[in-house]
Amino acid sequence: MVVPSRKLQDLIEEIRGAKTQAQEREVIQKECAHIRASFRDGDPLHRHRQLAKLLYVHMLGYPAHFGQMECLKLIASPRFTDKRVGYLGAMLLLDERQDAHLLITNSIKNDLNQGIQVVQGLALCTLSTVGSAEMCRDLATEVEKLLLQPGSYVRKKAVLTAVHMIRKVPELSNIFLPPCAQLLHERHHGILLGTITLITELCERSPAALKHFQKVVPQLVQILRTLVTTGYSTEHSISGVSDPFLQVQILRLLRILGRNHEESSDTMNDLLAQVATNTDTSRNAGNAVLFETVLTIMDIRSATGLRVLAVNILGRFLLNSDKNIRYVALTSLLRMVQSDHSAVQRHRPTVVECLREVDASLSRRALELSLALVNSSNVRAMTQELQSFLESCSPDLRADCASGILLAAERFAPTKRWHIDTILRVLTTAGTHVRDDAVANLTQLIGGAQELHAYSVRRLYSALAEDISQQPLVQVAAWCIGEYGDLLLEGSCEETEPLQVEEEDVLDLLEKVLQSHMSLPATRGYALTALMKLSTRLRGDNNRIRQVVSIYGSCLDMELQQRAVEYNTLFRKYDHMRAAILEKMPLVERGGTQDEEIKESKEAQLSEASLVPTEPQASELLDLLDLLDGTSGAAQPPPPLEPSPGDVLVHLLDLPCDLPSASPPPASIPNLRVFEREGLQLNLSFVRPPGTPALLLITITAINTSEADVIHFICQAAVPKSFQLQLQAPSGDTVPAHSGLPVTQLLRILNPNKAPLRLKLRLTYNHFGQSVQEIFEVNNLPMETWQ
Amino acid sequence: MQFMLLFSRQGKLRLQKWYISLSDKEKKKITRELVQTILARKPKMCNFLEWRDLKIVYKRYASLYFCCAIEDQENELITLEIIHRYVELLDKYFGSVCELDIIFNFEKAYFILDEFLLGGEVQETSKKNVLKAIEQADLLQEVINSNIPRTLLQVILVY
């Protein structure tokens, strides 16, 4: 037979007495077995006790779903004890996604219709906790009836149950909207609070309800005024503030009603000023009301003076000794920094002060707000503050802070010099935390400021000498040393400390970077290229550089190896061209969006623009040749090209490194614009490498200034038969609009007989949705191209 | 308010009230996550934290943590008052409440909460009214347990 069931307290005692998890599990398993047995036997007298025990076990995380049906039985029982525990169980164990919960609908209905208030209360409470949409629809009329019952105990619960029902089934608003007007006359705080919550819910859900309730604004204002002025009752006041719960709820509703509504906003103006000035702020309750008032003032169409008052209250909050209040102040100021920038700006010193908070959630807020407050007039001072914050802040804020400073510097930098200094400082303090694009941005910035080249390279050299672990810093430094190494060695630069650098020191440093285990492959690539570039900038001999480069020819990293091998070839076979190839990087045009810039500069420096030379389609080329050599009967295929020295050279030119792809030619032949149509321009630039007089390199640059991209862009060329032509693959087949990254293509022409050059081009592309084909001869080619 | 949790310094759950519908699994996951996060915070930190798209307001009273999840537009400071009021109610009901009271009478802790909040909203701002309601329900429970005739019961209930 059934073992006499144990009391709840005894069970809890035993569970708490368990020494280990295993022991606890054992006790609970045994007890659960008892409870199950008791449920099975249907022992109605002890059912509530068994369920209570099960609920305790459930809280400890053990399965308790087998108690669901017992909840139903208890709820249906006439005994109050049973009902009380049954409803509690239902709220904890039933889930509206399982159909079982619908089984209590009928019991709730019965209990709502029954006259006993406590039972009605239990039913309403359960309904507003686990009531699903279906239940709400079924029981809406019962709840509606209870809204206007005489007893305040049931009424306040019915009002909040209505709130839950609207959340679940918005259509039920129609039933619950009409009684609100009458409920608003109630004096009982519970009912009044519930009614205001209900109206808030209705207004947030439908514009029609919002309009409807705009006419009760005067009434709400009156309720709040009475509340504020009548002093306090012991029953409802908290530390001298009369019913802050009710005040906050009214203020929140006023905010919704006054938003974008001039008339309502006017009505509440005076009251808000009154609450804002008279609330006792010595305790949290008063501050809660004040905070809500500020939010309302900022959200409605309030008078300017009032808005300033509100921001000043938040400014005062920032000085409060309670960190919670400082937190809400920072959060709210952050929200209004866009709409009331100058008012918030006035509290900048206090905000900056908050950067020193030890609590990370506060200092994070202060950081966000400080960054939002940076503008062109305070950028120097603010950056200073942020930099010192960056040095001391917790690691998880460092990345945000670093990128914030970089962004602010980008937007408001007063001078280039300052900008470079700022980025440099961020890179030295928080190098590992910055995003990749910082490197590209800084190199571009330095490249564009010619007067600062010497200064930058010196600063970077010193920084690098101190620390070679911060990858972005090392990359920028290596790049600059490579580009402007000559300036580094040249001696004094009045803006920095006198720095005597020997060639050997520079090479030592770069080698150290190459060898350091902390260096990323990309960083090593920068360093290797820098060394290579230095080979033309140093006065001494290049043996050491050649040695280092050849060592990396057998490096395991493929990218590095490829570079090294290519550079090696450059030393050995094409030494005469090395100087031209290793020229300084041309300035990158700034324009377009940030992203494009980053892409551009990256592409210019390190991307693997994979230019696989493809042979132009023979047949089309033949057609073109026909055009030129109309007299020579049947067209012959162009003579096969021997792998010539130029091949490798061309590869090198296309390679990632810092080799200029569109650099000014050594023997300057003026550029030539050969085509212009609807914003698409084609320019030719010419290079005749010294030492190979028969060779002419033509770079075709297509740029598009129009609104639409040029797609499927193909450019083909033809020359008379006495010439040899090799057409390299273009850098892309889309010429982006708004002068985006241009498409370039290289032509290699061998002219052994120094015959006058004739060149014919065929363009096909798609622009503004139309396909275009153009064939034309370039007839004003400069004489220098062949003589 | 979306839910309220009470847990001990050791991370043991003492009360859970969910005003939104979630699966058991999800509830356990949330509880575990929040208990861990909050217990890891230092005492001098502020009482708010952002978590998923909710704001968490928590406060420690002796060995118990009270933790509420509220939505973005809700007021953190008044939520602290709600927690405090609930603590006051427990204190009045049990007479200087301690964690053990809540462990051994967890169902009472739920009953008190249900008289103070309903569907996640404050329903009664008077401490007196909340306690009166609980006392009457307790009284009713005792009366029934001592098998007083039903007619008498009706008399008591009218009060």
From TrEMBL, chain A:
InterPro entries with a match to the protein in the record: Adaptor_Complx_Large_Subunit, AP1_complex_gsu, ARM-like, ARM-type_fold, Clathrin/coatomer_adapt-like_N, Clathrin_a/b/g-adaptin_app_Ig, Clathrin_app_Ig-like_sf, GAE_dom
Keywords: Cytoplasmic vesicle, Golgi apparatus, Membrane, Protein transport, Transport
Listed SUPFAM superfamilies: ARM repeat, Clathrin adaptor appendage domain
Coiled coil: none
Gene Ontology cellular-component terms listed: AP-1 adaptor complex; synapse
Domain of life: Eukaryota
MF (Gene Ontology): clathrin adaptor activity
Species for this entry: Canis lupus familiaris (Dog)
Gene3D superfamilies: 2.60.40.1230, Leucine-rich Repeat Variant (1.25.10.10)
Protein's UniProt name: AP-1 complex subunit gamma
Record Pfam families: Adaptin_N, Alpha_adaptinC2
Location(s), subcellular: Cytoplasmic vesicle membrane; Endomembrane system; Golgi apparatus
Topological type in the membrane: Peripheral membrane protein
Any one of the GO BP annotations: intracellular protein transport
Family, as annotated: Belongs to the adaptor complexes large subunit family.
Automatic annotation (TrEMBL), chain B:
Transit peptide in keyword set: no
Domain of life: Eukaryota
Location of this chain's protein in the cell: Cytoplasmic vesicle membrane; Golgi apparatus; Membrane, Clathrin-coated pit
One GO MF term attached to the UniProt entry: clathrin adaptor activity
Record's keyword terms, sorted: Coated pit, Cytoplasmic vesicle, Golgi apparatus, Membrane, Protein transport, Transport
Domain AP complex mu/sigma subunit: 1-140
InterPro entries, alphabetized: AP1_sigma, AP_complex_ssu, AP_mu_sigma_su, Clathrin_sm-chain_CS, Longin-like_dom_sf
Membrane topology summary: Peripheral membrane protein
Name of a matching Pfam family: Clat_adaptor_s
Keyword Acyltransferase: no
GO terms (BP aspect): intracellular protein transport; vesicle-mediated transport
An annotated GO cellular component: AP-1 adaptor complex
Family: Belongs to the adaptor complexes small subunit family.
Subunit and partners: Adaptor protein complex 1 (AP-1) is a heterotetramer composed of two large adaptins (gamma-type subunit AP1G1 and beta-type subunit AP1B1), a medium adaptin (mu-type subunit AP1M1 or AP1M2) and a small adaptin (sigma-type subunit AP1S1 or AP1S2 or AP1S3). Binds to MUC1.
Cited function: Subunit of clathrin-associated adaptor protein complex 1 that plays a role in protein sorting in the late-Golgi/trans-Golgi network (TGN) and/or endosomes. The AP complexes mediate both the recruitment of clathrin to membranes and the recognition of sorting signals within the cytosolic tails of transmembrane cargo molecules.
PANTHER family in the record: ADAPTOR COMPLEXES SMALL SUBUNIT FAMILY
Protein name: AP complex subunit sigma
